Amino acid sequence: MKKQTLIVVSTLAVVLSAISPFSPVLADRVNAAASKNQQTLTLDQVIAEMNKKTPISTYTEATFTTQNRLIENSPKTATTNYKWWDNTINNEMRIETTKDGRTGFYVSKGGTSTSYKEESMEGNKQAVISSAGVKAAVDNKINNTKQELTKLKKDILSDAKVTFHIVEETLLNRDVYHISKKQEKVRNNQSDVTYNELWIDKKTGLKLKSISNANDKQISEYTVTKVDFHPQFNEKDFTLDLPKDVKIIEN
Fold first, then answer.
1. Whole domain around residue 186: which residue ranges?
2. Which residues touch 244 (CB under 8 Å, ≥6 apart)?
3. CA-derived radius of gyration, the chain
4. 84 and 110 part of one domain
5. Strand 126-130 vs strand 247-250: parallel, antiparallel, or unpaired?
6. What does the pLDDT read at residue 75?
7. N vs C: which end of the chain shows fewer Cβ within 10 Å?
8. Are residues 214 and 144 in the same domain?
9. How far is residue 136's CA from residue 87's CA, in Å, rounded to a whole number?
């Protein structure tokens, strides 16, 4: 694929995404651009390349926004903010999630995991400790990308028309693969259209963004806003200091 082609497609995607991050127009326009410019990459090629990537430690901050438009004139939108310390190559992980002003904590180290969620200004008064730890094979973000790509390929409805398009772009100043999947099936004489899009860092295999859109009714978007590919973790990152009056529940 020529360099000029990549620049045109990348610019188009950035502009459209800024206008409407949830719109299926983005997928259609990028697909059209990829087809016109004779894309040379296939999903199998990207999967094969990603399968060569090895797990690494990362620190990421991201947002996850869902939008439900099933009820006309009453769309519901919810956003969760994430902070993610992924040191699963050493069996350590910390996740902080914030939604509606409340923060949840999950810390795993040495085969033990602790979860705690603030339910009020005073806290939940309850934390759960589990003997189930984290492992890179299952929990590392790079391996999560491989799992998601495999699912994207296999998750196809019978009798559905499916198209994949892949272009190379830039996101967060990183070279990425932008993978777009459109699946269309007729149900009860009505067209059922689902879009799935992934933006994957070419060098590491980390997913930087994803969008899912089902009939423009149920929509979700995950976007990494900050990433450190060479984090300097310390012991405190994987220690959870609980309020003194919290009840401990062992699971």
1. 3-54+140-228
2. none
3. 20
4. yes
5. parallel
6. 76
7. C
8. yes
9. 8
Which residues on adjacent β-strands are paired with residue 104?
97, 117
200 and 181 share one domain: yes
Whole-model pTM?
A: 0.81
Rounded Cα distance between 200 and 122, Å, is 40
Whether residue 127 contacts residue 115, with contact meaning beta carbons closer than 8 Å, is answered with yes
pLDDT (tens digit, 9 = 90+) per residue, 173-193?
A: 999 999 999 999 888 888 889
d(CA 198, CA 10): 14
Task: Name the token pair of 200.
Answer: 């994957």
Instruction: Identify the weakest region by mean pLDDT among 10-24, 57-71, 91-105.
Output: 10-24
Overall domain count for the chain: 2
105 falls within a domain: yes
Nearest to 250 by CA among 73, 62, 114: 114
Pairing of strands 161-171, 174-187: antiparallel
- Model pLDDT for residues 214-246, shown as the tens digit of each residue: 888 889 999 999 999 999 999 999 999 988 888
Angle at 106 between CA 103 and CA 111, to 5 degrees: 170
Q: Are residues 124 and 171 in the same domain?
A: no
